[in-house]
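In this section we walk through a basic example: taking a raw amino acid sequence and producing a predicted 3D structure, encoded as C-alpha cells. The instruction is simple. Fold the sequence below.
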Amino acid sequence: MALAGADGKRTAQKVWRLKRLLVRWSEPASNDLIEIVEFIEHDRPEAARKLGRRLWLEGSRLNRNPRRGRIVPELVEQGISDYRQIPVATYRVIYAVRADSIDIVAVIDGRRDLQDALFRRLIR
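The resulting C-alpha cell sequence is shown next.
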C-alpha cells in the first residue's frame, strides 16, 4: 500500500506495519458482559453465548479502527468527549481511545438511560 507523505510523494508502507492498539476490558466492563450473559442464559442459553461472543469480538475488533464508533452523545452534553460507542444488538460498548490502548469501560443496554446506568454503577 502506498501513502502520500508530508512532501506529497508516495511512500511505500505495508499495512501490517501499522501499529494496532491493545484492547483492554476494564473490570466493570467485564462484569457488565458477564451479567448480560448470565441474565439471558436463564431463558436462552445458546442466545446468551452468541451475544456474549459477539460483544467480545466487536470490542476486540476495535484495534482495527478505534475511531469507528461515534462519540457518546449523553456524555458530550456534559462536556465529556473522550468516550465512543459501538452498537452491538441492543447494547452499547463504550470505550476510550488512549495513546497506547483502547479501554472498554462499559457495556450497557441501549434501551436504558445511560446516566442512570452509570449512576447505579457508582453506587454499587
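Looking at the output, two observations stand out. The first strand starts at residue 2 and ends at 4. The beta strands are 2-4, 10-12, 22-25, 70-71, 83-88, 91-97, 101-109. In the next section we compare this with other chains.
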